[in-house]
Amino acid sequence: MNSNQHYTMTYTLNSGIKGTVNLSSKQIQDWIESYRVGSKYVTTVGKEHFGLNPELVADFKVHNEFSEQREQVAAIQPPAASKGSEQLADAYSLHKVLIQVECKCGASFIEESAYKRSKWGCKECGDIVFLDNKKGMVDTEKGKAWYMTNRYFVER
Question: Measured between alpha carbons, how far is 77 from 79 in angstroms, rounded to an integer?
Fold first, then answer.
């Protein structure tokens, strides 16, 4: 351990409460000695005084550049699992419906939904738009879409 480098120590009290403190190598050595002999440990951390009673500490761990808390975890998926999730995503995308929204605020956009709905929210102003069953599906650049609006009264 580098003498002027600070490390994070995580401790758990007998009550189950966890705490962390940043200590220098010398402070960590002093803490370990206090823990071994069972004497109360008091030190200065920055401009604050820090005290810890080893009789109340169930366990502790000093994190350094080699400890697992510093490692970055990268998820590695086997090819079969990713292929299965792609198939699942493809299956769900087959059942998505398009919605053409035209709002009284002037917004006009196309949204995807997992299922047909009777109302939706305008992404510009937040007002509710309603499905116009009489108009039905309309042609858009993305394909056929259900028409929803609040520009006129829609029978529900």
Answer: 6
- Amino acid found at 97: V
pTM: 0.42
Per-residue pLDDT in tens (0 to 9) along the chain, 156 residues: 555 678 888 999 888 889 989 888 899 899 989 988 889 999 998 888 999 998 998 888 888 765 554 444 444 555 555 566 676 666 665 668 899 999 999 999 999 887 788 888 898 898 999 999 898 889 999 889 999 999 999 887
Residue found by looking up tokens 């120590």 in the block: 9
In this structure, which long-range contacts are made by residues 35-40, counting pairs with CB atoms below 8 Å and at least 24 apart in sequence?
A: 35/60
Strand, coil or helix: 81: helix
Extended strands (E) in the chain: 6-13, 18-24, 41-45, 48-52, 57-63, 97-102, 108-113, 119-121, 128-131, 137-140, 143-149
132 CA to centre of own chain: 37
Helix (H, G, I), strand (E, B) or coil at 17: coil
